[in-house]
Every structure is written in structure tokens, then in C-alpha cells.
Amino acid sequence: MIGRLRGVLIHKQPPHLMLDVQGVGYELEAPLSTFYDLPAEGVEVTLHTHLHVREDAHVLYGFAGAQERALFRSLIRVNGVGAKMALAILSGMTTEAFSRCVMDNDITQLTRLPGIGRKTAERLVIEMRDRVAALGEGAFLPGVTGGGAPARPADPVSDAVAALISLGYKPQEASRLVSLVEEEARTSEELIRLALKSTLNK
Question: Could you say which of 135, 165, 181 is where a domain stops?
């Protein structure tokens, strides 16, 4: 099991990134909350990882903090919640916000995340109650190391739209959400953050 990687960030385009670890390029998928804290390409970074084994592929997921990874591992054990939905949940809210939704039975807030209907939200509340209590109701704990200015993407709007689509939003809805906040941000990470925030504040 690969539990942690430290290497040079050589590519990032949500939800995909690549680390060069002593000459070996590791492809990972990560929640948007991790992307918000990534340094510029070319800078060293440390990520907590989870290797998800499927019949057709082995997918490596990266997380900025150990608590975020622990929540991901708990989520994929819930019936009907796969890795893609777990990433969408972690991308749409912090571990603290998710814990609060579960403990407060806040079904409405959970259904605002892409791909989560009422039945799935109810299942999450029931099955995750004991697990989030065990994880602790701490805020997201950053684990990303490295510094430098964020890399400037060639087209932050297109990157933001593509990232939202990868989370389960329909292309038209993703474009609409990004267009609403386009004038408020310059990077794809900022656009994604504001777009997701707007869906949860409805």
C-alpha cells in the first residue's frame, strides 16, 4: 500500500495531478480541497495517498491531510458511494462541514452536492454518524508542503468547468456556475471554490 508520496509537482489539472518521485511519475486524482493548497508546478509537495484497487484499474488518490484521507476511506465503504462520489463530497465541503451535516441530520445540504440524491444523503447520515464521531470533528488539517505562487493555467475558466464536470455536474450547469463567478477570480482553483460555494449557499 502506498501511504504517502513526496515529490515534485509536475502537472496539475483538477482532478488529476502528477508527482515526480525520484524519476518516477505518479498519476493521482485528488479532491479540489487539496488542489486549493497545492504549490506551483516544479515545487516539492507531500501528499497522503490511498490506492484504490478495481477490477479494471488501480487508481491512486492524493490528499493534503490525513484526516481528509481517513474520511475518503470511510465514505467509499458506504453502500452506493464510490470513489468518484467521495471525491465530489470532499471537493464540495470540508471534513468539518461534512461531519456537521451528518451529526445535524442536514440532508438538504448534502443533496446540494453533485450526484447525491435524498436516499444517498440519508444513507450517508445513518452510516457515517459513528465514523465521523471516531474521526473527530476537527477542521481540515493541511498536509501540503511547499511554496511558491500558484501556477497560472492557460485557460482558468475552461479548467474550472472541466473540473466541475469531472465531479458530476452537467456541462451546461458547470458553465453556468463558473460564469456567475468569473469576474471574481483569476485562477481555476479560485473559480472552482467560488462556484461550489455558490451551490451550497442557495
Answer: 135
